[in-house]
Structures are given as C-alpha cells and as structure tokens.
Design a protein that fits this description.
Distance between the termini: 31 Å
Shape: globular
Oligomer: single chain
Radius of gyration: 17 Å
Strand order of the largest sheet: 7-9-12-11-13-14
Helix content: 10-25%
Bound molecules: zinc ion
Order of helices and strands: EEEEEHEEEEEEEHHEHHEHE
Length: 286
Amino acid sequence: MRCEAPPTAGLFILSVIGSIKLPCELRLERREDISFFVPSNLLPEGSVRVVFSTRKGGVSPPPYESLNLAFHVGDEEANVLENRRVFCSAIGLDLGRLTTAQQVHGSKIAVVGQDLVGRGAFDEETAIPVVDGLITNLTGVPLAVFLADCVPIVLFDPLRRAIGIAHAGWKGTHSGIALNLVESLVGVFRSRPENLLAFVGPSIRSCCYEVDAELFQMFKDRFRGEVSEQGRLDLVMLNVRQLKRGGVFQKNIHFSRLCTACKASLFFSHRAEGQTGRQAAIVALL
Ligand SMILES: [Zn+2]
C-alpha cells in the first residue's frame, strides 16, 4: 500500500492504528503495553536506535496518563521512574546510562563524555543544566529530550559514529538550535553534513499552532519567505530548512507528519491539554 508522500519522504509505508494514519517515515512498534515510533528500515541494522515515544502504556494518572517520561511536570516521581523503567526495557536501552538535559528552550548543546553519562536518568536535579541538545560518540549511551508539542530533532553520522538530539520549541527554533546541532557534530566529531541522517519526530504542526501577531512577526523578520501561513507557524519545516542550511541533504531528512495536538490521544500536547506529561525522543549508538 502506498501513501501520498513526496519521493523525498523515505519509505512509502502506510500503517493504521485505529483510524489514525501514520506517517511514511516512522512505523509504530509495540512491546508489552508500550507503543513507540521508530524509523522505517532506514538505518543499518545494529548501528543506532532512534525512538519516539507515545503516551501509551505507562502508570501515570491524569493529566499525565499514562507514559509520562519527564520529572519536571508535577507527576509523582515514582510514576516517572516506573514509566522510564518499562519504556527503556521495551526499547532495549539501559536506563542507568540514559542522559538528559534540564531543557530551557535555549539553543545550547552539551557534549556527553563519560563524565556525563547517566545524568538525569533517575531524577531531574542531576540532568545536564541549561542545554536543549546533546551529542556524543559513546556507544550504549541513550540521549533523550522530553516534549509535549515541541520538535524533536535526531542526527546520526554513520561514518564518524556520532549522534545528536535536540528539543526545539518556538524559542529554540527561532534561535537556530537545529543548525547548532549540525555544527556541533561537525565541530566536535568532524562529521560531514552530507553524511548525516536526520529524523524529526511528531510535534505540533501549523494546523494547531496559531500564534499571536508579535510572535508571527518575529518569525517573519527572522525567516522571511519561509513563514508563509498567516498567523501560523510550522516549526517542523522551519527546523528541516535549518538542517538543509547546515548542509544536510534533503533526501537524508525524514520527518513525521503527525501533529501532536491533533493526536492528543496518542501524544502529550501542551497546546491541546495545558498541564500534561511529556513523551521522549531517544537516540543511542549500539
Ligand atoms: Zn494539528
């Protein structure tokens, strides 16, 4: 079965969960009760793990039901720990080495060496402060960002064996975190942008992201013709364009078409729900 995605979109796979059409670039997997998205056959076997979680399969009560993976949103710490435990088990990654950031909607990237491995795995306090992106070339170290509408960006350099991940809300998008992520891999691990594979996960799309006149003008001033829908922002495409500006080939950029606010039964959405939980984007070299 084929979908209507353009030829650059990767594999032409159409899946259905209930009545929800899934994007061509990601496929839904289910292990035990946990549902999550992974790239569709785009990665060399055994090289890297890229996962975008859903809200399905955890233990948290409303308004965090149920697989809330973030400590900072007001959920019980024990629930988040249990959710992280079952999620990491389901996706086959080591929770003790999970490395996270105290995200601040900035554009700074941290380089994760051995000294930072496992920061924030079991609490918020030890997460790496004041960064919204992480890069590493260490094997078996899952890097994670947490989101409820913001854009998760994952990069993988199969030649230099390096990975990066970032969280881009409107502030991070406006200040260029996607481009920073590319440049960090280039600067630290000597990645070549043309070798990078990029995965942009489920996030809010322009259908649900109307913004006030002042914010819209800020984006028009910064991105000019790239902001075309009056009063609405498409953060996914703005980040995709930043990746391309950084030298990542369009054919290597795979992005989800799912809108987290439209699909609030499957994802946490700050815009749709207000106080809620967070899904995770995770990348790890294997
Ligand atoms: Zn929407």
